[in-house]
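REQUEST ID: PR-0412
SUBMITTED BY: lab tech R.K.
PRIORITY: routine
TASK: structure prediction, single protein chain
INPUT:
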Amino acid sequence: MKKYNHLYILTLILFFVFSCEKKKELEEIKTSGSEEVVDFKLTAEDEILLDTIEKQTFNYFWEGAEPNSGLARERLHMDDIYPTSPKNTVTTGGSGFGLMAILVGVERKFITREQALKRYQKIVAFLEKSDRFHGAWPHWINGENGKVVAFSKKDNGGDLVETAFLAQGLLTVAEYFREGNTDEKILVSSIEKLWKTIDWNWYTKGEDVLYWHWSPEYQWEMNFPVGGYNEALIMYVLAASSPTHPIQKSVYDKGWARNGDITKDTVYYGLETELDHYEHDKSPVGPLFWAHYSYLGLNPKGLTDQYGDYWKLNQNHAMIHYNYALDNPKKYKDYGEDYWGLTSSYSIKGYDGHRPDRDLGVVSPTAALSSFPYTPKESMQMLRHLYKDMPEYIGKYGPYDAIALDSDWKTVRYLAIDQGPIPVMIENYRSGLLWNLFMKNKDVQKGLKKLGFQSPNLKTND
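STATUS: complete
OUTPUT:
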C-alpha cells in the first residue's frame, strides 16, 4: 500500500474543504441573487476610494462640460481627436445624468450649493431656447447655438428616451432646490415649465405604445415603437407622470409590457432574468446599462408592479454578468471576481453593445461600478483592482471607457452616458441621495400609482 506523508494528507483535506466551500458559495450566488447583500462592510480605505472616483467622474460634468451651455459633452477624448461628432456636441440623456452627478458634487462638498445653482441656471436657460420637437429634445444638440445635431440621417428630431433621461435629472434637481431661497425657487419653476411642455402623449401616434423618434423632416420614418424590457422604463413612468400630456395606462400595458409578454423571463447563469430582456432579440440578458439608466432616480428597492420585482431584476442582471465573468467561457484574460462587467461602450472596432452572448473581450468599468447598489462586494472588488493594479486605465475623469486586455487595447476616451451613472449609482448606494429626491416628486408619485407600481417610497395618504 502506498504511504502518504502527513503534509500531503493535510493538503488533500484542505483542498476538499475549500472545494466544498466554493461549491456552496456558487450555489448561494445562484439561489439568492435577488436578496440584498447585508454582510458587506466598506473599509476606511474603501470610503476614500469611493470619494476619489465620485469626484473624478463628477468632474466630467463639471470641469469637462461644454462651456456655453453647461451641458455634458457627448464624449471627451483626451487625445483631442473627434472623428464622429464635434467636441461641442452635447448629449441630452448624458446631461440628465450629469445634472444628478452635480448634486453628488454638492453633497460631497466638491463644489458649493451656490456654484451648482449658477450652473443649473445656465443649463436651464440654454434648454429653454434649444431645439425641441413637440416638447422633446433631440439626442444631440450643438452646445454653441442650441440647434439639433443629427444622431443619424433620419434621427434629427425629438428623441423621447433621451428626453426622459434628461427629465429624470431635471426633476431630481427641482426637488433638491424646492424649499430653497428665491433664486432656487425660480429655478424650480423654470424646470417645471420645461417638464410640463413635453408632449409624451403625442409620441404615441394615437396608438398604445410610445415611439422613440419623430422628425419634422422624416416624420415617423424611424418607426421605433418601444416595447420592454430595455433601458426605457423611465420613459413610460415619466409619460404617465406628466401633469399636462400623460399617457393612459393601456400604453404601458400594451406597449411597454406587450400585453404581458414582457414576463416571459428565462434563467441564465443560475438566475432568473425576471423579465424578457428583448422584444426582437433572442439574447437572454442585455448590457448592464439597462440596470442603471432608468434607476438613477427611480428607486428599485421594493419596487414592484404586476409584471416584475425591479430589485430582483437588476440585482440578478448584475450577478449574471458577474457569474459570466467567473465562468469566462471564452477564456479572456483576467476575467474573474475583480474584473467583470459588460455594457455598451467604445470597443476595439468602434462602438458595441457588449453582453454575455456578445462578448468581445471588452470590459467597460461603468458596468460593474454603476452596479454598486446591487453588487457592492463585487463592484468594490472591481474598483480596488482598477485603482490598485491597473492605474494606466485611469485618467482625469476616472476609469477610461473600455479595456480589452487580450488585445492590449484601451481608449483614452470618455462617454457621458458611461461616466454619468458611476457617481450617481455609487451615491445611491452610499446615501440614497438621488433616489430619495426623485421618488418624492409629486408627479412621479402619481404616475407610479397610475401604472400600478408599489413601493415603500410611495405615499399612501394622497
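NOTES: The chain is about 40% helix and 10% strand.
REVIEWED BY: pending
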